[in-house]
Specification:
CATH superfamily: Vaccinia Virus protein VP39
Largest sheet: 7 strands, mixed
Strand content: 25-35%
CATH topology: Rossmann fold
Strand order of the largest sheet: 3-2-1-4-5-9-8
Radius of gyration: 15 Å
Oligomer: single chain
CATH class: Alpha Beta
Length: about 190
C-alpha cells in the first residue's frame, strides 16, 4: 500500500527489478524464474509490474479476499499465470514446501509480531526451491520499534529486522536501501535472505 505516495510506485518497482536481476539466471548461486510468491499482495501491484514479467507463475497471498478478487481484473490477461490466490494472514499461511524460487514480502512485516514473523520466515525457508530467496522490502525506523496507531502496525529498525531473520535461521545474502524516495517517509531497505 502506497498510502498517498502512488507517485513512487515506478521508483519502487524499478528499484526492485534492479535488485532481483542480481540473482536471477544461470550460474552459481543464481535463482530460477519458474515460480514466485507475493506476500501481502493486495490487488497485485507487485505481481503485475515486478513478478509476472520475470517469473512463469506467481502465487498471491493476502488477508483480504476483496483485494484478491479485484486482482483478477487488475492483472488482466497476464493474470492467467497466477497459480493460486490464497486468502490468509501470513501468521497462519503455510506455503507449499519446495515450490518457490523467490518469496517477495513487501510492506507487510509490520503487521506481524516478532514471533509470528520468525515462524513465517521459517516456513518460507522450507518453501524455497534450491538457491531460492526470501526478499523482504520494508520501511525501517531509525531506532527501535515505532508503532503506527493508524494501521495497527510497527516499524522496526534494521538491527531488529536482522536479528529476527537470524532467529529464523536465515542469512542476509545482500541488502540495499531504496533510493529516490521522498525524504519525509521512512527509509526503505531490501534484504535478500537464504
Amino acid at each position: 500500500m502506497l498510502g498517498g505516495y502512488g507517485s513512487i510506485s515506478s521508483i519502487d518497482i524499478n528499484g526492485s527489478k534492479a535488485f532481483l536481476h542480481k540473482f536471477l539466471g544461470e550460474g552459481e548461486g543464481k535463482t530460477g524464474t519458474s515460480c514466485a510468491l507475493d506476500c501481502g499482495a493486495g490487488i497485485g501491484r507487485i505481481t503485475k509490474r515486478l513478478l509476472l514479467p520475470l517469473f512463469s507463475t506467481v502465487d498471491m497471498v493476502d488477508v483480504t479476499q476483496e483485494f484478491l478478487d479485484k486482482a483478477k481484473t487488475y492483472l488482466g490477461e497476464e493474470g492467467k499465470r497466477v497459480g493460486n490466490y490464497f486468502c490468509s494472514g501470513l501468521q497462519d499461511f503455510v506455503p507449499e514446501c519446495g515450490r518457490y524460487d523467490v518469496i517477495w514480502i513487501q510492506w507487510v512485516i509490520g503487521h506481524l509480531t516478532d514471533d509470528h514473523l520468525v515462524e513465517f520466515l521459517r516456513r518460507c525457508q522450507k518453501a524455497l526451491r534450491p538457491n531460492g530467496l526470501i526478499i523482504i522490502k520494508d520501511n525501517v525506523s531509525y531506532e527501535g520499534v515505532v508503532p503506527d496507531e493508524v494501521d495497527s502496525s510497527v516499524c522496526r529498525d534494521l538491527e531488529i529486522v536482522h536479528s529476527l531473520a537470524g532467529r529464523a535461521g536465515l542469512r542476509i545474502v545482500h541488502e540495499e536501501q531504496q533510493m529516490n524516495f521522498p525524504k519525509e517517509i521512512y527509509q526503505v531497505h531490501t534484504l535478500a535472505l537464504r
